[in-house]
């Protein structure tokens, strides 16, 4: 589970770069019940925060990187962004955005893993991260699709100290590796790694990618909102034993995410 104590190595924030901020805000408002709060002025709404029930859950900004696809960026909490940067480089990763301070809020950096999967880190200052997690309309899980799970586990294990436990998916669906922050019990697991053939990573032309899983009270209703507001569904809705009912979705600009109604415990 994801919590707001944000232990080192756990997901603490996410944001989305989108070509049309206003339309994107409306889409996620319809699907997840989010309210958008602009941090600027004027009609362009270049960036701001999403809130759910008054609490900040994610960020939204204008996609400015040339050639980049709209995608959710997941940030993991670290105590020292500069040390993490050195670990990323030592492990064969790439620094996309060097560590930088965002006023007194905190220090951030963005990277690519050795196969190209993009992720980010946040060294908290006055801003610890999202104010609501693991509740309907908020981040509840993170997931990496990669063509080489062994290499991914070695890299992220070295960078974050993550612990991994493997489980076999039913019906010969492969192995899913569960992620737990260093030194924490398995009930604090926060994500997973799934190996897929490169041809199944069409969104990124074979490059690995992280995506968020958002908890919802009714997966089917969320899917109807996705398709009714210009998005699409890659998989589902379907029931996963012991997990819940889920669907892999794309927003109208092909940023991927999952909606999940968790199984009753």
What would your notes on this structure say?
The protein has 265 residues and is α+β, with helices and mostly antiparallel strands. The protein is built from 4 helices and 16 strands. It has helices spanning 21-32, 81-90, 149-160, 219-228, and strands spanning 11-18, 35-38, 47-52, 55-62, 71-77, 94-102, 106-112, 118-124, 139-146, 163-168, 175-180, 191-195, 209-215, 232-240, 244-250, 256-262. Strand 15 (244-250) and strand 16 form a beta hairpin. The two termini are 13 Å apart. The mean pLDDT is 93.
Descriptive keywords:
265 residues; alpha+beta; eight-stranded mixed beta sheet; 4 helices
Blueprint of the fold:
Elements: E1 11-18, H1 21-32, E2 35-38, E3 47-52, E4 55-62, E5 71-77, H2 81-90, E6 94-102, E7 106-112, E8 118-124, E9 139-146, H3 149-160, E10 163-168, E11 175-180, E12 191-195, E13 209-215, H4 219-228, E14 232-240, E15 244-250, E16 256-262
Parallel strand pairs: 1-4, 5-8, 9-12, 13-16
Antiparallel strand pairs: 1-5, 2-3, 3-4, 6-7, 7-8, 9-13, 10-11, 11-12, 14-15, 15-16
Helix pairs in contact: 1-4
């Amino acid at each position: 589970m994801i919590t707001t104590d944000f232990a080192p190595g756990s997901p603490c924030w996410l944001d989305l770069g989108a070509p049309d901020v206003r339309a994107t805000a409306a889409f996620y408002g319809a699907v997840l019940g989010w309210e958008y709060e602009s941090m600027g002025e004027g009609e362009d709404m270049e960036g701001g925060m999403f809130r759910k029930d008054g609490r900040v859950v994610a960020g939204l900004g204008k996609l400015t990187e040339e050639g980049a696809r709209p995608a959710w960026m997941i940030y993991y909490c670290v105590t020292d962004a500069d040390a993490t940067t050195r670990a990323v480089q030592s492990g064969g990763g790439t620094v996309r955005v060097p560590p930088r301070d965002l006023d007194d809020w905190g220090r951030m950096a963005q990277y690519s893993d050795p196969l190209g999967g993009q992720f980010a880190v946040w060294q908290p200052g006055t801003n610890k991260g999202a104010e609501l997690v693991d509740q309907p309309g908020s981040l509840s899980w993170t997931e990496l699709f990669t063509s080489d799970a062994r290499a991914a586990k070695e890299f992220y294990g070295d960078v974050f100290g993550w612990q991994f436990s493997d489980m076999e998916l039913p019906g010969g669906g492969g192995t899913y590796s569960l992620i737990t922050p260093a030194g924490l019990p398995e009930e604090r697991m926060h994500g997973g790694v799934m190996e897929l053939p490169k041809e199944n990573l069409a969104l990124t032309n074979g490059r690995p990618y992280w995506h968020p899983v958002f908890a919802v009270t009714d997966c089917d209703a969320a899917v109807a909102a996705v398709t009714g507001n210009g998005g699409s569904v890659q998989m589902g809705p379907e029931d996963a034993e012991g997990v819940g009912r889920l669907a892999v979705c794309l927003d109208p600009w092909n940023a991927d995410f999952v909606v999940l109604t968790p199984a009753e415990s």
